[in-house]
Amino acid sequence: MRLHIWINGKEYTDEVDAGMPLLEYLRSKGCYSVKRGCETSNCGLCTVWMNETPVLSCSVLALRAMDKRITTLEGLQPQAEEFGAFMAKEGADQCGFCNPGFIMNVLAMEKELQDPSEDEIKEYLAGNLCRCTGYAGHLRAVRAYLGRNKN
Amino acid sequence: MLTIKDYCLAESIQQAYELNRKKQNKILGGGIWLKCCHFPIQTAIDLSGLGLEGITETEEGFEIGAMTSLRQLETHEGLNACTCGAVKEALRHIVGTQFRNCATVGGSLFGRFGFSDVLTLFLGLEAFVELYPTGIIPIGEFAKMQPDDSILTKIFVKKDQGKTAYLSARNTSTDFPLAACCVSWKEGTLTASMGARPAKAAAFSRENVCLEDLEKEEFLEEFARDAAASVNFGSNRRASAEYRNYVTKVLIKRCLGSIKEGDR
Where is the FAD-binding PCMH-type domain (chain B) (predicted)? Predict the structure, then answer.
């Protein structure tokens, strides 16, 4: 079936299978930051933006993204690098496997919430699992990143 | 693993209904639960082109399209103001933001899942659902029906919700609840909807209740006990029936406390 889509600002038209998840399609286009993790829609590893809204690409059919604008980490390199520096400074990652999905959701949160409290940050990011760090470093990095322009 | 042979973006509800009458075809909600199913689907029927996404506020209440995401519900100020924040409280624990951006209210309700916060919430709010072609029916009636070929198109929530509170208990954050309760007090009627027992939510009501009754500890005990006794609890790996029964009574009492205080 025919799919028309924008990925990181670039337009594509392709024939895809009816049951193909968006995740698989994005990886076929070279977006390897989008990873398959839990297969139960719980881990947040496959987070991308669909029309600026964070969604789980493992759970969205590629055909549902018809005429929509998809953003992956590859399309947000400057922002990802900036936040990544805060992650590194706080020792917030270990294996790094969860980072792409986590960064996508942090950047979405930054756009959606104004000056979020710690509880709001935790709630917004609850769908991003990390099995290495225990999240304390993540939280420090997010707080420092969100507060970077305050002083 | 989910396999889908064909996909149809429905152009009318009639077309979707005709397609859905074939057993191998399935309506797509958010697709999250469907993804975990292990049966082949001939045609996945997508309702997202039918204008069923969004919440419309009217004088009497809220009209919620079946394709509205849980996140849209959670962040809707009017709906939360009318329900004392119960909508947000019921939904905010469901996995994560990205999940709730995908999951739809129609998909969450139509399955009448035994773990559902969403069904528990709307049963407590005494909502109505619009089914095609059946028409509009109370959600309590809908909850008792077996899933059939009909299509859930809209949910209606009245504005005069009185006082409402929602609470759930989970073994771990973002897991399914092991007990969930929505309690409302409206025009002298106290209603407790109890879900995640693990069976589809069911409600218990008592009439002629005044706010002063909620000040009496023995009334709270009695109401919670009678509500819990009116439904069956089951066991699974999350909790035993006995534990669920106990926790449900605690949640009901805490909801009654919130209603009394008016802080939810």
Answer: 1-162
Q: What is the dihedral of CA B160, B131, B100, B52, to 10 degrees?
A: -90
Q: Looking at domain B163-261, which CATH architecture does it have?
A: 2-Layer Sandwich (3.30)
Residue B207: CB partners within 8 Å, gap ≥ 6? B188, B189
Mutate to test the interface with A, among B98, B101, B172 (most CBs of A within 10 A): B98
Q: Where are the domains of chain B?
A: 3-46, 55-158, 163-261
Mutation pick from A64, A72, A128 vs chain B, by most beta carbons of B within 10 Å, is A64
ipTM for the predicted complex comes to 0.96
**Average pLDDT in chain A:** 95
Distance CA B162, CA B259 (A): 9
Adjacent-strand bridge partners of B45: B8, B27
Lowest-confidence pick of A118-122, B164-168, B258-262 = B258-262
**Per residue in A133-150, pLDDT tens?**
889 999 999 999 999 988
Chain B interface includes A120 (CB < 8 A): no
Query: Tokens at residue B210, please?
Result: 């005044």
**CATH 3.30.9.100 describes domain A2-74:** no
Domain spans, chain A: 2-74, 76-146
> How wide is the angle at C-alpha B49 spanned by C-alphas A27 and A64, nearest 5°?
10
B51 shares contact with chain A (CB less than 8 Å): no
pLDDT, tens digit, for every residue of A1-36? 999 999 999 999 999 999 999 999 999 999 999 999
- What is the DSSP secondary structure assignment for residue B92, as one 8-state letter? T
CATH architecture of B55-158: 2-Layer Sandwich (3.30)
Architecture category of domain A76-146 in CATH: Orthogonal Bundle (1.10)
pLDDT score of A151: 65
